[in-house]
Design a protein that fits this description.
Involved in the transposition of the insertion sequence. This is DDE domain-containing protein. One of its GO terms (molecular function) is DNA binding. Keywords: DNA recombination, DNA-binding, Transposition. This protein is α/β, with parallel strands linked by helices and about 200 residues long. The chain has a single domain (about 5-200), classed as Ribonuclease H-like superfamily/Ribonuclease H (Nucleotidyltransferase, domain 5), CATH 3.30.420.10. The chain is built from seven helices and five strands, in the order ααβββαβαβααα. The chain has helices at about 5-10, 20-40, 85-100, 110-125, 145-155, 165-185, 195-200, and strands at about 45-55, 60-70, 75-80, 105, 135. The protein has a five-stranded mixed sheet, with helices on both faces. The radius of gyration is 18 Å and the shape is globular.
Length: about 200
Amino acid sequence: MSYRDLEEILAERGVHIDHATLNRWVGKYAPLIAAEAQKRKSATGRSWRMDETYVKVKGRWTYLYRAVDKEGNTLDFMLSERRDEAAATVFFTRTIRSNGWPDKVVIDKSGANLAGLENMNILLILRGWFWLIEVLQVKYLNNIVEQDHRFIKKLTRPMQGFKSFSAAQATLAGIETAHMIRKGQLAGNGDTAYQQFAALAG
């Protein structure tokens, strides 16, 4: 659904807002709401599934790094212009910062992702820890995160790409947060989806 579609839907309900205003609101508020969702989400598991999917920005493919636990709960996400060791290392660093250290991470055959996790294990060794993250490169075990990608792709595909990297980041932050709400990761005692969103935006 485009911002123009939302403009028409709101107008039918007596709310007159230009689609450009909706776009600016998403750019300004979606990242803030997503950051608050990371703070408030329920505890996640220590067995992770990590993979990337593709998002088109200014006619070029970029990489949406995503991780879920073995129950399918969203851990974190990050849009990157590159798919390399540096990007993977940044992603694992921020995911660990918001979720704690994993016991195990399942990835595909990507050498960049493996190198990123090896960097995390080197950090553990330097800190004098006696355990390391177990890394499994088994494609069929990653079905959970690959299935989770489908929800994101279903929403981004009709958009036919983004005009700027910052717009893509903001919009994806909003989509991922809505996905977390649907999964019940932010639910209190019987909170509706609207109540969960209102708590984040308040």
